[in-house]
Structure formats: C-alpha cells, structure tokens
User: Fold these one by one.
Assistant:
Number 1:
Amino acid sequence: MDRTPEIDVLVVGAGFGGLFLLHRLRGLGLSTVVVETGSDVGGTWYWNRYPGARCDIESLEYSFSFDEELQQEWHWSERYAAQPEILDYARHVADRFDLRRDIRFDTRVTGAVWDDTVERWQVATDAGGWSARFVVMATGTLSAPNAPDFPGLDSFAGRVLHTARWPDDVDLTGRRVAVVGTGSTAIQAIPLIAEVADELYVLQRTATYSVPARNGPLDPAVEAAVKADYAGLRARDRQMPGGFGSRFGWNDASAVATDPAERDAELERRWRIGGFAFLGAFADVILDPAANELVADFVRRKIRATVHDPATAELLCPTQPIACKRMCLDTGYYETFNRPNVHLVDVSGAGIERITPGGVVVAGVEYAVDTIVLATGFDALTGAVMRVDLVGRDGRSIRDAWSAGPVNLLGLAVPDFPNLFVLTGPGSPSVLTNMIVSIEEHVEWIAEALVHLRDHACSVIEATAEAADAWVDHVNLVASFTLYPSCNSWYLGANVAGKPRVFMPLPGFPAYVERCRDVARSGYEGFRLS
Ligand code: FAD
Ligand code: N01
C-alpha cells in the first residue's frame, strides 16, 4: 500500500503567492509541494483571459522585487501589461527558479484535517493526499468566481461565459452579447467586445467610477530610470498607502480646504497622468464625505462631457462615494457608449428578471442575445479558502469558524487551525494594495516564522482566540474611520448572496507591515508556540 507522502509545507495555489512561497521555503531547506487546480502557473493571469484583461498597477511595479537580476532582466512592453504578458512573466519566474518540479497541476485540494497526535495536516486532493507539517492557503483573494444563479440561466440556448473562466475559442464577432456587470473586469472587456459584436447590451446594477489608464508602450526612458535604482523605487513604494505609486506621489492636502480652481487643476493634472495617481490627489478622499464628493463630482463631469446621450451619461454617473468600491481604470470605457451598437440597461431596480432561451429579461423587456458574459466578479477574500474543507483542532471546520465573517490574527493565522497560514487574506491590507508587494511581505513573514520555530525547537504555531478577536475589532475600527464600509462592495461581501457583511481588508498598508514585524520581533505576541 502506498504511504501518504510526508512533507514540511503544502502550498495551495500556484499564482504569484504560491510561486514565491515555493522559492523561499525551498531556500530554507523545507520540503514543499504546491498543488494547483489549473494546468499552469499564474493564478489570476492563467484564468482571466477575457478581452482586455490587464493589470492596473503599472508593470514596473506589479512585479517581484525579491531578486535584482529578475527585475533587471525582465522587459515589459506596456505601461500596464496585458494578461498574456503577465502569464509569460509568471512562467518565466517558474522556469528561472526551477519551480515546476514541485508543483502538481490539474489537482484540486479538497480538504485538510489537522491531526493533533502527530501535529500534521492530512491534506486531501482529487489525486491523492499529503501529510504536511504546515499548510499555506495561497488560494487567491479574487479566484473563486461569483456566478449569480439567474432564473432560467440553464434554459439559455446560446453561450454563457464567465470572464474568470474564459475559454480560448471565443470569437464574439457579429454576436449579440449581454455583459452582466460594470466592475473592473467589465470595463476592460466592454470596449473590445463593442468593437466586434453586432449588438452589445451592458447590464449595469451600479455605475462605476473609472479613470483613464493612459496605457501605451513602456517609455524606454522611464524603464531605464527605474532600473537604474529599482531597489530605491521598491523601497519608496513600500512607504505608500497602497505599496505603489511613489513616482507620482500622494498629495497631503485636503480637497475641502483647497481652492476650487486649484483643486480642479490638480485633479485634471492627475487625470492626464492616468491611473491610480488620480486617487492620490488629496489626502481626505476616502476619509471625508465632503472631500470625496468633490472628487466624485469631477469624474461625473468628465462622464457627462464624454457621453453624448444625456440620459445614458446620467445613468453612467455613480452615486456612491468614489473608491468605496474599487476604482476602475479604463481605455475608452465611457466613449464606448457613443457607439450605435452599445446599449446601457439599468438593472439596479428589480435586477435581471430572468433568462430565456433567446435573451435576457429586464423590467419586462427581453433583450435578444446569443451570448451572455458574466463579469460578475468573485466570492472575494474568503471564497477560495472556504471552498476547501478545512478542519482544525477538535473537528472545527473553517466554514463554522468563519460563519459570521473571517476571524484571524494579522490576516495570517486562524485560531484552532495550527500551522495554517492564509496568504494575503481577509484582515490584511492585500486587496487595497499592489498585491505583489503584499504577497512578498506575507511570504517573508511566514518564512521567518518557520525559521523561528526551527531555531526554538517548536513544532506548532497557532493564533490565540483573544488576539484574533482583538485583531478583527482593530480591522473594523480602522475601516470605520474611512468611507469604505459605506457602499455595497465585494470588500464587504455584499456581492454574494447570503455572505456575512463584514469589511474584510485592513486599510493602512505601511503601518500593517510594521505591526507584523513587531509581532515577529516580540517572539510572536498573540500566537501560542509549542
Ligand atoms: P491567484 O493568482 O488568485 O492564485 C491562486 C491560485 O490558487 C489559482 O491558480 C487557483 O487555481 C489556485 N487554487 C485555489 N483554490 C485551490 C484549491 N482548492 N486547490 C488547488 N488550487 C487552488 N492586483 C494588483 O495588485 N494589481 C492589478 O493590477 C491586479 N489586476 C487584477 C486583474 C484581475 C482580472 C484580477 C481577477 C485580479 C487582479 N489583481 C490585481 C489581483 C490578483 O489576484 C493579484 O494581484 C495576484 O495575482 C494574486 O496572486 P495569488 O497567488 O495570491 O492568487
Ligand atoms: O468584479 P466586481 P470584477 N446582477 O465584483 C455586477 C480586480 N480586477 O471581476 O456593483 C447584476 O468588481 C456587480 O454589480 P454591483 C479588482 O480588484 C482588477 O469586475 O455589485 N449585476 C459589478 O458591477 C476588482 O475590483 C482588474 O452592483 C451583478 C460586477 O457584476 C476585482 O478584481 C481587472 C450581479 C462585478 O464587479 C473584481 O472585479 C479585473 C447580479 N446578480 C479585476 N452580481 C484590473 O484592472 C454582480 N453584478 C487590474
């Protein structure tokens, strides 16, 4: 009979998080296996192949910093890289550091049970099991697709596509398409689908604030300047609220206190730079409703100036605070609604009534389509973790432990789940930052913790319930000082029916990193080591 292989660490997921974990843990001499559902590395960039998919943090910053040679040798072709190029980069990282030999592709981790008698996780997959001292859930914050169960969807005679599971054989030329959703994904896909589809119906529940990305070929002078002092840029970025954007800076001034003409000039300057530089225009945008409204109104004026039909323009003007839902970056999104084949359909009221074999019914009107694109996002932050049947100490399941919302310490460790870490999970700044920076910080913290255990002859690390409860209170308190919890975002779980409403990410990036380091320096305050 085959024995279950015993390893030090089992990592779930081969996105950027899993790749760097494998490299780092291997370097520590820990036997590590990565298990990945997909057939290749890349995670987000393996799965999201919809038209227009690209990053919205600039390529020179949305990349690993842990290896100077890697960051010097890699060349990005555009200011914001497109999905195929980011996937190539992930493949390059895997090959350069010889990572593939420890990755099991096409394999899903279905569950893991903590066995206290041997202090190990017994991990089950759909292709065999492992016994591991540690498990790291590098399962991604935006990796579990959210596909609402619209009445009649099964009866649809055409094709239903989810953007996060986009097949390679799709050609929407000459099609009649409905896109459900107007989040970051949809606003990237819509302009490109509009160019080829016969008719495009955009089904909008909540209007989106979007700022021009101003993408283009990467300026060789910018690339050379960054590469001349890459470490300097990375260090300066790590002092920024989102772990990126130091080249354009964040303004300390208040939008409310700034003279209106000066305020508009600063917003206009940043609108022209493109990208998230816009949100750095004033320090109080996400803190003060009055400041937020001034900036939001600037964007609404841009929408009205861009979209020719006044009724469509009004419908495209968001009413919630700007950045309360994640702001979008686009290339020609609002302009697309000036095309005769593009129709904006308001589904904010009773929603999508039903799907018929030939179309989508909203407010009693049937829109005849042959393709439905679900750009409906993800069961974010908790979804991928909770889809694994994790059972911790005393038979406690993660679904039970997190039934009222995620409970953990530093976003990294869950009480009753010893030796299990969650990478960039809820309770950490993750999705409010440049994710690669957050991934690097978490991987380094986990690696250091494992070294600490080894050096101190400990075998188990576990967050205490008291420390985790205090951490959840801290996350809620910090969030309550901001406007983030004031609208129905996926940050709050509001996009998934039945999901508890808890603000999940922690605003406050550089301070969080310091806090994690302090905890490590203190000998892991809030954790029980044995
Ligand atoms: P992922 O890349 O999500 O990888 C997780 C992997 O785990 C997946 O491959 C999945 O298949 C695997 N997995 C999950 N569950 C299991 C299981 N049970 N068994 C086996 N395998 C499993 N962030 C930014 O900072 N900037 C951006 O510009 C940006 N753009 C984005 C664009 C899109 C379209 C999306 C969806 C997200 C974007 N993000 C961006 C966030 C992005 O998810 C992160 O930047 C980053 O790629 C996450 O890496 P990861 O390794 O943590 O997770
Ligand atoms: O998902 P979303 P996404 N009926 O949840 C609508 C990252 N990302 O895939 O707002 C009708 O933002 C929903 O409506 P509402 C980034 O972090 C980055 O677009 O809930 N509509 C919304 O409009 C981003 O934030 C990039 O009212 C329904 C849309 O579907 C995150 O991933 C690109 C509905 C979902 O928007 C998620 O983005 C792509 C229903 N039942 C993604 N259910 C970059 O540019 C949902 N919707 C880097």
Note: Residues 12-18, 35-38, 43-44, 46, 48, 53, 55-57, 62, 108-109, 138-140, 142-143, 185, 384, 388, 423-424, 434-435, 439 surround flavin-adenine dinucleotide (ligand 1) (CB under 6 Å).
Number 2:
Amino acid sequence: MATIKLEIVSPDKVVYAADIEMLIVRSTAGELGILPHHAPLVTGLIPHAMRVKIDGAEKMVAVGGGFMEVQPDKISVLASVAELPEDIDADRAQKAFNRAKKRIDDYRAGGEDINIIRAEAALKRAAARLTALGKHGE
Ligand code: ATP
C-alpha cells in the first residue's frame, strides 16, 4: 500500500515519525483526510485526537493545536503539545476536563468573568487526550 511520511513535532521533541497510509485531522477549515500524493497544503489544527492509519490499523495522537504542512511525500505537524496515548496520564486529563467544564458551566450560569477562550481551549485539549485514550466521545 502507498505510504506518506508523517512527522509530528512538539516544541521539545519529535513525538512521532513513521511512514503511514492516511492521516485524519481536524483543521481550522474542518476535517481533512490526507493520503499519499496529496496536493500541497498548509492549515491550522485545533486541539483534537489525530487518527493515523498505519499497517492497516489506526493509532491516535492527541494534539493541542498547531499547524500542518502537506507535501506530496511528507506531512509535517508542528504542535503546541502532542502526546501518544501511552504518554497520556488519564487521571490528569480527566481532572483537567472536569475543571475546565465546571469553569465554563459556572461562567455560562452568570458566574465570575473568566477568559472563556482559554477555558474552552483547555477543555478541548483534555477532550483530545481522553479521546486518544478511547475514554471520551468528542
Ligand atoms: P493540565 O491542566 O493538566 O496542566 P493542560 O492542557 O493545561 O493540562 P498543556 O499546557 O497542554 O496542559 O501541557 C503542558 C505539558 O504537560 C505538556 O508537555 C503536555 O504534553 C503535558 N501534559 C498535559 N496534560 C497531560 C496528560 N494528561 N498526560 C500527559 N502529559 C500531559
């Protein structure tokens, strides 16, 4: 089966690099499926669990937002944070999810003023981690 190189880089390391069959991402313009020989493209990514098809199986990688550059033979993801499922602390992610959700719910119920954009981004990062662990339906 045809493959395309994928490299996912966070500020401190290469999180994942492999020859893959397909990448499904949530971009700022909607969901995109990238196959080998895709047309060149640059887009922003929102926090979500990316789906990597490799060797006939699917692997998840949580990203906290960033950019993706596609060339016909290579996909480069520059992420603000990225984790493989085996590196995700489920308890921490669940606590972050609950904390962000409560802040947003309290704010919507007329509570104290908060940075809602920041709270929603934290909720999305936590949801991405839980989804990558198969614990949450985004
Ligand atoms: P928290 O509120 O739990 O700190 P956060 O979404 O604010 O979560 P980030 O700012 O996205 O955290 O990430 C800070 C650092 O902590 C990054 O290196 C990220 O990979 C790591 N990290 C955050 N949450 C987890 C987790 N649940 N499991 C493993 N690493 C995590």
Note: The chain has two domains: 4-83, 88-132.
